[in-house]
Amino acid sequence: MSTPQQYHSYIEACVEAMNACNISYISNLKEYDLEKLCDCIRINRDCAEICSFTAQALSQGSIFAAEIAEVCAKACEACIDECQKHPQTHCQECVEACRRCAQMCRELMEMKVPV
Amino acid sequence: MSTPQQYHSYIEACVEAMNACNISYISNLKEYDLEKLCDCIRINRDCAEICSFTAQALSQGSIFAAEIAEVCAKACEACIDECQKHPQTHCQECVEACRRCAQMCRELMEMKVPV
Amino acid sequence: MSTPQQYHSYIEACVEAMNACNISYISNLKEYDLEKLCDCIRINRDCAEICSFTAQALSQGSIFAAEIAEVCAKACEACIDECQKHPQTHCQECVEACRRCAQMCRELMEMKVPV
Amino acid sequence: MSTPQQYHSYIEACVEAMNACNISYISNLKEYDLEKLCDCIRINRDCAEICSFTAQALSQGSIFAAEIAEVCAKACEACIDECQKHPQTHCQECVEACRRCAQMCRELMEMKVPV
């Protein structure tokens, strides 16, 4: 079983992606062209919650850490695909944070974690 | 995208498994032979939170519903394996609720859900 | 300490409000007059997550059940205030579910729960 | 409405308290004198989840940030009271992280946040 200490940088990457997704979510809801951003709003919230749950699961040493990290990597990748369609700064910053989180999650999935 | 209405019975199964896992968690912490129940305590909490997150994800129509349901099915199956080792009523009731939740999650994974 | 069994109808009311808020959230994002619904979208998600967390906290017998129920009651009441401004069926159904959840939470807050 | 940017140091304090509570939770379950630690195990998990939820709520700019922060401050203070009874290093580290989180939450409650 990995400990929260070992997972520290992974938890941090999840929290940063959660924050970037939430900033993008809030900012999108204030944009002018709202109808073009509905998919982005939904996936931002969806991804933010998955990142938050992943951080929590890693922190408590869930035995399903690898499986949850895989869902988180997919959510971040889908969020990147959507955010890349939009020129707004908050979307571009969300892409960066999600890219790092996805990489970390994929790395974690391949760790040989003694259970 | 499936709607929370379509997911109603799945959400219900997740909430029932969450409750059964939490009852088992709380009850285990009051048992006499506590040191034999540590693994059960941990997996009960782990599974309870995954069930709770799955209910929420289904309820908000997450586009990762199938992936999250798969993690939930695995968590319930691991919880069943552990609870079956213990004779306590709360462990047996947890087995029943997790079995139903795991079945529902596996069914959901195979649904052809229009996204 | 109350048990999840005692909390059963409270957990149910929270889950129903979570579902109604999420249905309203998803439906609002598909409406034509999106810019009039931004506040409703935000409070629907906010309330949905608070209801979900409250269900989970009650289920695990949190010693902060009364405090969390108070936040949940306030969130439901704010959600009612916003949803009442909109004629859509999903907003009206959200009002009903939040009204019941707020009542249950206020009832729970006054319970003399032996800790 | 405060933004996740403004909340950054508050979110960080919540995540650190979540991690410290989870480390204490996991470590307690491996201790020899388990029966003396049951209350500590329960309150560690309870507090960890409240900290996690608070981080998420602040991150998404919840309009109930102050109310949720108040619950989080109380949870951290209760966790401090319990952990102070135990000599283990993980309990002492939990006290430190919870003290900082409680202070931050109390500070946040007094912020005049424009909604």
Automatic annotation (TrEMBL), chains A, B, C, D:
Transmembrane segments: none
Domain of life: Bacteria
One matching Pfam family: Csp
Record-linked InterPro entries: Csp_YhjQ, YHJQ-like
PANTHER family in alphabetical order: CYTOPLASMIC PROTEIN (PTHR37310:SF1), CYTOPLASMIC PROTEIN-RELATED (PTHR37310)
Protein name: Four-helix bundle copper-binding protein
